Amino acid sequence: MKNIKAIGLIFLALLTGLAAAVYATGWISRQSGIASNKVVVAAVDIELGSRVNAQMLSTVDWPSGSVPNGSFSEIKALDDRVVKVGVLRGEAIMEGKLAPVGTQGGLSAVIASGKRAMTVRVNDVVGVAGFALPGNYVDVMVNAQQDKARGEDALQISKTVLEKVLVLAVAQEANRDDTKPKVVSAVTLELSLEDSEKLDLARSVGTLSLVLRNQMDKTTVATGGITKGQLFGEKVILPVSTAVEPPPARPHAKRVGHAALPASECVEVIQHAARSLTCF
Questions:
Q1: What is the pLDDT of residues 220-242, one digit of tens each?
Q2: Which of 246, 232, 182, 190 is nearest to 48 (CA)?
Q3: Out of 3.60.21.10, 3.90.1210.10, 1.10.10.10, 3.40.50.1820, which CATH number does the structure's domain 39-108 have?
């Protein structure tokens, strides 16, 4: 009986193995029958602004029904192209991730059309403790003194002058995949030409501060800034003007005959049935 049970278990194991082999063979044959195309992918991590070469790329089989739009099938089609975003290993290279043909490598390839790159000096406080990293958005605030008005003192004011500004690079690094804070001495921002002029004036008249904002927040808020008096709730005291009282009116004179004389300065005298008016 023991031998019969052992033989039965062996026979069952053989049947199970044979069934698994048949299933695997069928699955492999079905996979080989799926149409596929060659797609160029990154063989290594490629940083933005880098010029692509053949050593950075490889080709893989990609199902024909899911080939990414704008992908490439030959490595030579990507000679001397520059990536404008970071590409991870194994990620397909697409036209939307590349700078226009003929673009030189470096940070200039990353700047959007119509924009400019401008660098400002920062410290650990101005640079939001190193959390203002490439790819983040910041607001720019300036603390300065307003111009003196006639008869008034100069008021110190803090005001947001630019909103939702893209950080292109910190120091000499433009890698957007790093999330570790970096305390640096300079930050490069992407600005329009008009905003570049505002920032250049702002840093010459006062002290700049960067305010980190949510990357998905696209709202803008126009503020009038805040002065020292508004910050501490000081009330503006207007000077009180002293009213000038009009001179007292003189008493009306009583008329005697055709002459008008003040009544308080005249005395009527009756003497021997004759009347006379004596004024002092």
A1: 888 888 888 888 876 555 454 55
A2: 190
A3: 3.90.1210.10
